[in-house]
Amino acid sequence: MIPVPYRSIINGGLKPGKSFTVRGMVTHNPHRIAFNLRHSYGIAFHYNIRFDENKVVCNSWDGLWGTEEFPAGMPFKEGQAFEIYIFCTDDSFNVFVNGQHVCSFKHRFLSLNDIDVFEVTGELQIDHVDA
Length: 131
Hints:
The strands form two sheets. The protein has a five-stranded antiparallel sheet with strand order 1-9-3-4-5, with no helix packed on it. Strands 8-7-6-2-10 form a five-stranded antiparallel sheet, with no helix packed on it. The chain is built from no helices and ten strands. 0% of the residues lie in helices and 53% in strands. The radius of gyration is 14 Å and the shape is globular.
């Protein structure tokens, strides 16, 4: 089991083609889980599973939160195993949960090589990370 919160350094910064895979289990009575791609002064991509609101929110933060985007559906379930795969392209982050594409988030922060931290927080157990 991998400790939560989890953080890893992206050596050399993010580049198109880079991906992140996390396998784990949502705990019982979860509140929120977040997957973040961070840079030194903000969050380029914030994928936030809000069990308390039964929705997923995608956003970015550069001192202020940007406009929230709401992908359809809730692909995570309390007490269930999951695999999330985040793939960076030239123009967006693509997210897959359990093999299904669940959202695309257009890059708002364009200096991809300044994105140097992958972070996971919240009520989950992590069994495997490929970052």
